[in-house]
Structure formats: C-alpha cells, structure tokens
Task: structure prediction
Amino acid sequence: MKPYRYFQIAAITFALVLGNNLPAFCQSPQNIPPQVQKVKNQVQKIGIAEDTTVILLTGKEYYGAISKIEPDSFEIAEVDLKQRMAFDYKEVKKVRKGYGGRTFGGKRVNPRASRIAGIAVVGGLIALAFWGASQTK
Result:
C-alpha cells in the first residue's frame, strides 16, 4: 500500500511541475486597428434604436436606426432604402448620432452643420438690425 501511495504522490508532483511549463492553447488577444475600435466605441455609445449616420470608407452615407450590434459588425434599419443594412466595423469610416433632414436636392444634412448655419443666420440678422437702428439716428 505504501509504494502505491508514493507512486501517486510522485505522479501528481510530476504532472504539476510539467503542466505549468506547457504552452496554453487559449485565445490570444486580437490586434484591433484603432479605426475599427473607434467605430465600435461610437456604435456602442450611440446604442440600439438610435438614429445614426454611417459614413463608409468609400464616402457613401447611410441613415437609419441601429437594430443590432455584434462583435465584428452592426446593422441599421436604413430609412431611405427601407431595408436593413449590415456593416463590418472595418469598412466604416465614421458613425454619428442623428441624420438630419433632407435638402432640396434630397441629400441629408449634418444636424450640427444645420445648427451652426442657423446660428450664423440669426447672428447676421441681429447684426443687420443693430446696424439699421444705428443708421436711423
């Protein structure tokens, strides 16, 4: 009985010593390009069911609400084409919240640009009013 016990202890010790030196066959961390990680973070920050503008590396823009977020892609319900569109993070240049209204030509405008233009027009009108008031004296 005693030799059998020594054999068990020696086998367990041997397995533990050699087991720690073997390479682990686990998943290695993937090297994600910074642009892909930036787009992923933007999509996560905007969230599901939020209006979004997707700008591809080719310059093409799509507008809709995010319907699905996956580890390597996301999907939007495109409002102009009335269909779901899936995008890989690596083919997207930029994602921004909102998609704005349409211009006379049918192209959608950036909501931020619309806001800046509106502020500039109001500022110009106020400046014109002050100039006109100063000329009537």
